[in-house]
Amino acid sequence: MSTGIQVACLLPARNCAEDLPGWFESVARVADAVVALDDGSTDATRTILAGHPLVRRLLVNPVRASYEGWDDGANRARLLDAAAGLSPAWIISLDADERIPADDAAALRRFLRTAADPSRAYLLTRYRMVGDLDHFDAGRPFLVGRLFAFEPGQRMPRERLHFVPIPTSIPSTRWVRTTLRIQHLAGLTPERQRARVAKYREADPGRRFGRRYGPLLRPPADVQRWPPRPPELPVVTNRDAPAEAGGAGEPGAPLLSAIVIARDDEARIARAVASVVRQRVPAPFEVIVVTSGTDRTADLVRARFPSVRVVELPRPALPGEARNAGLAVARGRYASFPGSHVELAEGSLAARLEAHRRGYAMVTGTALNGTPTRAGWAAYFLDHAPALPGRPSGPLDEPPVSCSYLRAALEHVGGFPAGWRAGEDTLVNTALFRLGYGAWRVQDLRFRHHTPCATVPRLVRHHWHRGQAFARVLLAPGDAGERHVVRRRLWLLACYVPGRVLWVWRRVRWWGGPELRREWRRAWPLAVLAVTVSWLGTWDGLIRAWWWRLRRGGRDRAPDTSAGVAGRA
Question: What is the 8-class DSSP label of residue 92?
Fold first, then answer.
């Protein structure tokens, strides 16, 4: 018989009396009942659990002096069995040193009421908090399985330590990433870090469970201020989710914002803006042009396109800064960035909007070449190999290129890095993809890219800057301290030139068709030259950064004017 409990929270606890008041405050936002297990505490944990009205079931293990003999698998299995007596609709696990912020808790409750799929289990991203609940280590998020619908007869995995607490009846193919966040207090201070490592070493002295506990003592990789959850951010964005998609944030607001960024582009801006303005979209949309530089681009747009909003920056701006300036005034739920070198085909924005409305945070399409010189073709293949015309529509299993976005997803990662000459969208797209945001390709969504790399010198200069941007991606905060990641990056650099050329050639063979294959045969020597220059630019960027670190005694990274996503992935 139903007890009317929507969400029950499972809590395995030991010697966490100091954490419990904050934990109960947090869990009360999401759970109607708590099923707790005191695992032999020597402090007041058991007394606090027994006296709290939210605790509906309390299990106890005999008191013991250390974590020796800790069996997390058996504890969680007992908790799940005890929760069966409450017949909850959903079960969430939240450890005593974990918190769900109020805005994420509200989004979770709303999601469970409206859009959650009981056949799936849901993964949350856990962030290490640093010093207090207002600062976190953006470089080391961790995906954790925490939420699933209850069914009688469910069983937890039988591992003793280090497993995902999701019933074995829900296969990993049914696990879904969410944008929900957990704040993890275990690394809040160096003292808590050391206590955590000591706990694991007592429970697993021979490292039988394949974990190295020393890395848990590493200092934070990238401390940032904890951001609020964007109000329009869906919980799940990598599947068809129309029930959660909602509408624009304010009454009468456009559903889509097309943001054109331009720097000294008066010779080509009219063509780009005209291709956006003439789009027929089955929903309100706005066009924003962000200009910088010293020419008459802004005046030309105002004169020829009076309905377009112009944002004129006071100084020459790099792409990330210009994109962020457009986002700051955009009102649409979705944001597209057709550049000043891009000409949209009819129906492009409508196709993007349709894919976004299905629940995808990133939507990309088909790129056509608008610069038919040999250098232009080389640039086209290198920049747009994943977006060739023959590639069919469907979900992507890698970060997209030249995509539009759910605007709240961009807010989630803090926008674009402002100080990057190139690669700002690559960093953002990779960060979003790692966080679980889905990407969809629409084959009939076409745009023509008029690359400025019409000559060999321009091609070489462009890919030198791309190589330096790639070095910054490699040096971005994150798991760079892990030895296997460093080895992988060095291997990547060693094999970059042949690997990149082979990668492009395969995509031309798969999706290019006879005409594009013919152009590739003409352009591939210049493509090899460009990739080699990019490789040299990458090494130049890495050596400069390493030299800076050496001069600073390894204490700081090279100066970086970036803002936004660095390290958020």
Answer: E
Task: Please tell me whether residues 183 and 248 are part of one structural domain.
Answer: no
- Containing domain of residue 460, as a range? 242-551
CA distance 60 to 36: 9
Shared domain for 391 and 274, answered yes or no, is: yes
Which amino acid type is present at position 564?
A: G
Distance, CA of 569 to CA of 562 (rounded, Å): 15
Non-local CB neighbours of 104 within 8 Å, separated by 6+ positions: 180, 181, 229
Structure-token pair, residue 238 = 């990598």
The two structure tokens encoding residue 500: 């990149």
Q: For residue 41, give the CATH number of its domain.
A: 3.90.550
For residue 90, what are the β-bridge partners? 7, 149
φ and ψ of 286, to 5 deg: -120, 155
Whole-angstrom CA distances from 174 to 129, 154, 163, 386 are: 29, 15, 17, 27
CA dist 19 and 339 (Å) reads 50
CB-based contact 501:531 (threshold 8 Å)? yes
Residue 37 burial (CB < 10 Å; 0-12/13-18/19+)? buried
Classify residue 399 by its DSSP letter: -
Count of Cβ atoms closer than 10 Å to residue 559 Cβ: 9
Low-confidence ranges of the chain (pLDDT < 70): 1-3, 210-211, 238-251, 476-492, 552-569
Q: How far apart are the first and last CA of the chain?
A: 44
Instruction: Supply the pLDDT for residue 247.
Output: 44
Joined tokens for residue 491:
């291997």
Residue 87: burial class (beta carbons within 10 Å; 0-12, 13-18, 19+): middle
Q: Is 562 domain-assigned?
A: no
Please report whether residue 314 resides in a domain: yes
Whether residue 308 sits in one domain with residue 221: no
d(CA 147, CA 476): 31
CB neighbours of residue 358 within 10 Å: 14
Record the pTM.
0.76
- Tell me, yes or no, whether 235 lies in a domain: no
State the amino acid at position 455 in one-letter form: T
Claim to verify: residue 162 and residue 307 sit in the same structural domain? no
Q: Is 381 exposed, middle or buried (0-12, 13-18, 19+ CB in 10 A)?
A: buried
Residue 568, domain member (yes or no): no
Counting Cβ atoms within 10 Å, is residue 291 exposed (0-12), middle (13-18) or buried (19+)?
A: buried
Whether 96 and 11 have beta carbons less than 8 Å apart is answered as yes
Say which CATH number the domain at 348 has: 3.90.550.10
Domain tally, the chain: 2
**Are residue 318 and residue 404 in the same domain, yes or no?**
yes
